[in-house]
Amino acid sequence: MLLAASLLLKGLAIPLLARIAWLDFTTQKISNQNVLLLLCLGLGSLQLLSVGSWWDMGLSAIAGLLLFVALFPFWALRKVGAGDVKLMAVVPLLIGGTGLVVFSVLLLVFALATAMVVKYPLMLPAGVFRLYVQHLDRKGVVPFGVPISLAAICTIGFMIYVTLMPHAGPAI
C-alpha cells in the first residue's frame, strides 16, 4: 500500500516535470512554486518508502546537496540559471537514491542531445524551430531544465515499470 502511494506521488510529478520543461523551453524560467511542489512530492514519496530504512532518503539528500553545491558556482558565473540549480538539487529527492544512476545516464544523453541541437540547428527539419534555437544560441541561453525534466520523467517511468513488472519475461 505504501509502495502504491509512493508510485502515485512519483506519477503526479511527471506532468509537473513536463510543464517545467515546456516553461523553461519557452520562457527560460523555472518557478520556485514548481520546484517546491516537486520537493514536496519527492519528500512525500521518499517518506512513504523509508519506513524501516532511511538509506534512500539520506542518499537522496546528500546527492541533492552535492548537486546544489557543485552547480552554485556555475550560477554565480551566469552559466546556468538559478531555476536549473534548484531543479537539479530537488530531482534526487524526487527519484530517490535507487534511481540516481539511471537519472545520471539519461541526463547525460539528453544534455548532449540538447547541446547538439543548439550547436547545430541546421540538422533540425522545421524552419521555425531552427530559427528559435538559433535565437537561443545568440542569446547564449540554453534551457537546461528541459534535459533535466526529460531525464527525471524517463527515470520515474522506468522505476514505475520495474516496480509494476518485476517478473515480466518474454511472452511464450
SSE layout and pairings?
Elements lengths: L1 H26 L4 H18 L5 H22 L5 H14 L4 H20 L7 H13 L5 H20 L8
Helix pairs in contact: 1-2, 1-7, 2-4, 3-4, 4-7, 5-7
Describe it:
- The protein has 172 residues and is mainly alpha-helical.
- 77% of the residues lie in helices and 0% in strands.
- It has helices spanning 2-27, 32-49, 55-76, 82-95, 100-119, 127-139, 145-164.
- α1 (2-27) packs antiparallel against α7 (145-164), α2 packs parallel to α4 and α3 (55-76) runs antiparallel to α4.
- It starts with a helix and ends in an 8-residue tail after the last helix.
- The mean pLDDT is 83.
Classify the helix fraction into a percent range. over 70%
User: From N to C, what is the helix and strand string?
Assistant: HHHHHHH
The overall average pLDDT, rounded, is 83
Overall 3D form: globular
- The end-to-end span amounts to 31 Å
- The number of distinct helices, counting runs of at least 4 residues, comes to 7
Please summarize the sheet with the most strands. Answer: none
Point out poorly predicted stretches.
none
- What proportion strand? under 5%
Let me know the number of strands: 0
What characteristics describe this protein?
7 helices
Summarize the structure.
The protein is mostly helical and about 170 residues long. It is about 75% helix and about 0% strand. Helix 1 (about 1-25) runs antiparallel to helix 2 (about 30-50).
